[in-house]
Each structure stands twice: as structure tokens, then as C-alpha cells.
Write the C-alpha cells for this entry.
Amino acid sequence: MTEKIRHRDLSPRSFENSSWLPGTAGNPFDTILTAGSAISQIPGFAFFIILALLASLVAWTNPIKAALMLAFMLTDWLLIALLSKTQRSYGPVKPVVLVLALLRSLFGLLPLWPALILQGIGTLLVLIGFYFEPQHLDVHHETLTTNKLSSGHSLKVVHLGDLHIERLTRREQRILQVLQEEKPDLILFSGDVLNLSYVQEETAQNEARNFLSKLHAPLGVFGVTGSPPVDPPEVFAKTIAGTPMHWLNNQSVTLQLETDTLQITGLTCTHLPERDLATLQTFYSPDLAALSILLYHSPDFAPLAASQSFDLQLSGHTHGGQVRLPVYGALYAASLYGKLFESGRYLLKEMTLYVSRGLGMEGGIAPRVRLFCRPELIVWQITGTR
């Protein structure tokens, strides 16, 4: 089903003097992820005492309520610890449990029965967000018509983004199964191969290389790096070595499709759109007769790309927020434009932008959670009208 197209009529903004660049080392989000890692070093018995004290503080006048609160917290501890044992995700345990405990404490201030009902709902949400949704792949179909292709000709393109591989799980196996079923003409990747926590780990690199080696399409597999801390050039080059992935490192390639031409441009993302525009202009020569696709990790470049003769920009990075609320959407979108490009399909001038919710999850101490935000693989059916 083609997603609703949202129009974004806005002028590019300047971020050269911004002190906060999402996706770069040292931004506030990255600082929190780094600082919070110390929680993992707390001994198990001491961590139990912390949870017990927290439960007692919330319900200090009601020992039964305090004991039940602690039981819910310990259940969270067990469920999060079992994620790696059941080969679902491989993040830290104690920082996530502490965050969940603090959230539970807020609702623990209510009277006993409302508090218990909400605590039970909380456990259900933990099961959905940590166990079910991250493995429940959304195979999303989009259509695009263009006069850049001959009438009656069509092209099937699969867009993959934000793999964030820690280890190969059922999710990655499902992705490969979908690719076999869909048989795309072309596979395009918009960056972030490894999980931030495992960038330098050889086992994760080998697992990612194993996955990438199984990607095949008649017209090829092309990709770009993602955020600099996640896809350092030397690690990315090592990870894709010997796989079908063609790295477009500030490059354009032209593919001939019988009487039609397809131009794919890969622009390396620094998360400084104006700087990356200057880089683009050093190598990009638009072919106005060709169907032109831009691969760029973040959606933040789209207001600039819309004036560069691209027909379609494929991006990711935001993960759709990973945790979404009905109607409101993402609680947080890692974009310079806030929630304007949090996920999905947009139209800027004549250019279509699609922001994938991605396939993997954040690293560091960030919870390996998806709530109302399933991992997404996009299948494009591009049809000619010329």
C-alpha cells in the first residue's frame, strides 16, 4: 500500500553554527548513551538493592504494594536479560531495567489497584516492544510513476536502511526471505550497517558481511555509509569487502535499462547539509533524461536535494522514532528538522523523499525497543509513462 504523501514546502535552513548535530559523536543524545553505560558496571546485588529501595520509596506506606512493585521490576530484569539468550537483541540490561523501573515508579504513586493494572499493562508493552515488534518486519510497498521511463516499463527497487546488526537474528533471516520472494531488480541501502555498540567487534562485522553477501539483484546492490560513528569508512570498507555491495562514496553511477537510463548518486552524510551540498556539486552532473535517485543517510538533506534535479531521495536515520504514540507519532526524531521528516513519504517540489523506519535499533544504552514502529523494508514499483 502506498503511504500518504505529505507535502513539505520549506526553504533549506542553515545548520553550520548548530551545536547539536544528530548522528554525530558528542551530541547530547550520544553523551547520554555514553554516560549511562556506567550503570552496566553496578554489581547485581547492589542493583537489586537499588530496585528494592526505589519500590519502597514509591510505596513506603504499603509493604504489599512495594513488594508487588519490586516483582514487576524484577520481571523486567528477567525479560531484558533473556533478549540475548533468545537471540533477539544484544544490548545492555541494567540501564534499560533502571529506566523501566523509573517509569513504573511514576505509576506506582497511584492507588493500589489502578497502579497494579497499569503495571500489568507495562509488562505487556515490554513484551510487545522488546520481543514482538522488533522481529515483526513490515514489508511496505510504494509506487511511483515517472516520465523518465518508457511507457509500460517498470522497475522494482528494494530500499534497506539502518540494519544496525549486532548478531544475525530472525529479523535478518526474514529480510533475506522477503528479498527472495520479491526478486527486486535493484537493491539500495541508505546506511548504518552495524550497531553502534558493536562497530569495532569482529564477530559483528563478520555477521554483517555474511548478511550482505546474500544480497543479490540483476542491476546490482548499491549503498552509502550512515552516521560517521556507526559507519566509519575503514570499518564499512572492511565489512562490505567481498560482498555484492557497491559503495557509492560521493559517486554517481549510470545504469542502462534498454532505452531508459537510471542514475544513482550516493552522497556521504556528515550531518551538515550545506557542507554535503558543496561535496555533491564537486562530482554530480545531473542527467535530466535519466531517472535520478539519491542515497543519503539522513532526511535533512532533502530541502537542498529538491533543487538538484533528483526524482527520488531514499533516507533513514530517524528509525521512525522507534517508540511512537498513536496520532502524535515519534516521541523523538533524530533530525535537524525535528518531526518534519520523522518517517514515511514526502514531496518536496518535484522530488519524492522516503524516510525509512529502518530495520535495526539504536545502540549504546538505548533500549532495543520498537513500539508501534515496526522495522520496515520498502519495495518500490516504479512505472514509466513516457
